[in-house]
Write a structure and sequence with these properties.
Elements lengths: L2 H19 L4 H12 L4 E3 L3 E3 L4 H4 L6 H18 L2 H13 L3 H16 L4 H19 L7 H12 L7 H14 L9 H17 L14 H4 L4 E8 L10 H4 L1 H5 L2 E7 L2 E3 L12 E7 L3 H5 L4 E8 L2 H5 L4 E7 L10 H4 L1 H5 L2 E7 L2 E3 L13 E6 L1 H8 L4 E3 L10 H19 L5 H14 L5 H7 L2 H19 L2 H13 L4 H16 L4 H19 L3 H11 L11 H10 L3 H27 L2
Antiparallel strand pairs: 1-2, 3-6, 3-7, 4-5, 4-6, 8-11, 8-12, 9-10, 9-11
Helix pairs in contact: 1-2, 2-22, 4-9, 4-19, 4-20, 4-21, 5-6, 5-7, 6-7, 6-8, 7-8, 7-27, 8-27, 9-25, 9-26, 10-28, 19-20, 22-25, 23-25, 24-25, 24-26, 24-28, 25-26, 26-28
């Protein structure tokens, strides 16, 4: 191996370690890779120390067509959400499919898979999860029986088209850099359809028995096992309460209850330790069952009304329960609710957290948050509406169709159809038509400029732009060619079909641990060179590799789609393994077999 190949191998190992361990944010790890490529380290006679890539080449990924197409994909997805197109289509489909558990599962696996072919896979989960949960509550189904199929459907649909997921765009962009022509819009569809069909058949015959046998979807309070009550107490005349601060009253320290809100006349005030109580103030407090009698026995406090934490009774005081998911790239990640001063920041009170399949009820304010954690919130309608617009959290509730006019929803769907038709017929290049459709959505006011900017997943764009040059470096230094020759030499005697099978198996294994965009960038040049060295077709090798990068079924850590459903579905790691391993094996075997049979590898 050349010194350059050894250096790139070290950079790659460092990238894989940081991504898998989570010691650095993925975008920071990507930027470090980019910097490593432009670091002068290798001595060149007469030129001193030189980098692998010149600075202009190392940052060229941010000007790549792939970045522009990924950004356009995010904007089109946002237009689908904000025009209500997804709500109109999705609710009708789920209502029709909700007549039985199996029928609803089949509906999710078919409709959501088709939907995800044209909308980013992570966005697909965020759009459909509230709709699925609403149907579960209405029909009495368990969310744990529905949300994992939803996540898997988003991944299966991402395999179908060029814009289904970022990895497809990246592989196509690499092929364009080598041959001048990228992959077609539907180049993936034939094989991906077979993968989805076999996956659905397996699920119906056996896979659904591998899902957790959850109970019918209960109310939010009972699902989080919140063994607490909310009580109203009124401050009575006298020195025991009136004139004292909440800190001096010390209900939290002495009785283990929390003051959620102080009602003073017509005003609702957020509590603070220095707030001084007045006669007639109403304190809404929360505590465990055994704590409530002690609070009601306090001198200076008298009970006003007691109610269990349940949707119906809470609405009687203009309070209601809601559930929120910590969104990908949320600034809340890694921080506790107490550290964030969550109550005052959002004006709602957290009751419990479901983190990675378990409820954290004892000291929820001190628990550090992770992407996909679900938080049970208590608040007023106005505060919850304000929370729904915060990108840091995703409120799991069915929202009404936005009043922007049904024609804008139809226009958004028409734009997606135009992208598909023009790309499929090669009338226009996807590099042009995808951003053009995004701009058209802005001009037609299907999505505002503010909403478009908010929809951009900057972490994903930075990862793509920063790591794309690594593929260039692997090719430029001859590392990809040397690796392809080595693979072909060791396996070439078995034929290109066997070489492809080994490559796809390695892709499936790697994508269980790493984000699929990073896997695509690393493996695209390898797949291309392996195809050339073994006598296979590079186009077929790259299509098959792209499909297998979207098979992150077996762990919740490799893809945002699987992380997002973990808290709301109360899944444990083993739940992903039980159902995900067969799905991943199906993707590998069907993709390999279809590529060999249909394309004569």
């Amino acid at each position: 191996m050349t010194p350059e190949s050894v250096y790139l191998a070290a950079v790659l190992i460092g990238l894989l370690y940081t991504l898998y361990s989570g010691r650095l944010r993925p975008d920071v790890a990507g930027l470090l890779v980019m910097l490593a490529l432009m670091l002068p380290w290798r001595p060149v006679e007469g030129a001193g120390l030189q980098p692998i890539l010149r600075p202009a080449e190392a940052v060229a990924g941010f000007g790549s067509p792939a970045v522009i197409m990924v950004a356009g994909m995010f904007v089109l997805s946002a237009a689908m959400v904000h025009t209500g197109a997804t709500e109109i289509l999705g609710r009708r489909a789920l209502d029709w499919g909700g007549r039985s558990e199996l029928r609803l599962q089949i509906t999710i696996l078919t409709v959501v898979t088709a939907f995800s072919a044209f909308v980013n896979d992570t966005t697909t989960v965020l759009i459909w999860m509230p709709l699925v949960l609403a149907v579960c509550r209405e029909r009495g189904y368990s969310a744990s029986r529905m949300l994992l199929p939803l996540a898997y459907a988003s991944l299966l649909g991402g395999q179908w088209t060029l814009i289904g997921t970022r990895s497809n765009i990246l592989v196509s962009d690499y092929l364009r850099s080598r041959t001048g022509e990228g992959l077609g819009f539907f180049s993936f569809t034939t094989i991906a359809l077979l993968v989805a069909a076999v996956s659905l058949l397996f699920f119906v015959l056996a896979g659904r028995r591998l899902l957790p046998r959850g109970a019918p979807e209960p109310s939010l309070a009972s699902r989080y096992e919140v063994a607490e009550y909310v009580t109203e107490v009124i401050a009575t005349p006298g020195p025991d309460t009136a004139g004292r601060t909440l800190g001096e009253l010390g209900l939290d320290q002495r009785h283990g209850v929390t003051v959620l809100e102080v009602v003073r006349g017509e005003h609702r005030l957020a509590p603070s330790t220095w707030m001084r109580l007045l006669e007639g103030d109403v304190l809404i407090v929360r505590g465990r069952m055994e704590s409530i009698p002690r609070v009601l026995a306090e001198r200076g406090l008298s009970p006003r009304r007691e109610m269990a934490v349940g949707d119906r009774t809470l609405r009687s005081v203009d309070l209601r329960l809601a559930e929120a998911i910590v969104a990908p790239q949320s600034p809340l990640e890694g921080k506790s609710l107490e550290e964030l001063d969550f109550d005052h920041r959002y004006g709602v009170s957290p009751l419990a957290i479901s983190s990675r399949g378990r409820s954290l009820r004892e000291r929820p304010l001190r628990e550090r948050l992770f992407v996909g954690d679900a938080i049970l919130l208590l608040g007023h309608e106005k505060e919850l509406e304000r929370l729904a617009s915060d990108p840091a959290l995703f409120l799991l509730e069915t929202r009404p169709v936005p009043s922007v006019g049904r024609w804008r929803a139809a226009a958004t769907l028409a734009l997606l159809a135009i992208v598909a038709v023009t790309a499929a017929t090669k009338l226009l290049e996807p590099t042009f038509v995808i951003p053009a459709a995004a701009v058209a959505a802005l001009l037609l006011r299907c999505v505002s400029m503010r909403q478009a900017y908010a929809s951009l997943d900057m972490q994903a764009l930075v990862i793509v732009g920063a790591i794309i040059p690594f593929g260039t470096a692997v090719e430029r230094t001859g590392t990809a060619h040397a690796l392809g020759e080595a693979v072909a030499h060791s396996l070439g005697g078995l034929g290109p079909a066997f070489v492809l099978g080994a490559l796809l198996l390695g892709t499936v294994l790697l994508t269980q641990l790493l984000e699929n965009a990073a896997v695509a960038i690393v493996l695209a040049p390898v797949a291309y060179e392996v195809a050339l060295s073994s006598g296979g077709d590079p186009h077929t090798f790259l299509v098959a590799t792209a499909i297998c990068t979207s098979s992150a079924f077996t762990t919740p850590i490799a893809h945002e789609s699987t992380i997002l459903v973990m808290g709301a579905g109360r899944y444990a790691f083993r739940d992903y393994l039980r159902l995900g391993v067969p799905f991943a094996l199906i993707t590998w075997l069907v993709t390999w077999g279809a590529a060999v049979v249909l394309y004569g590898v």
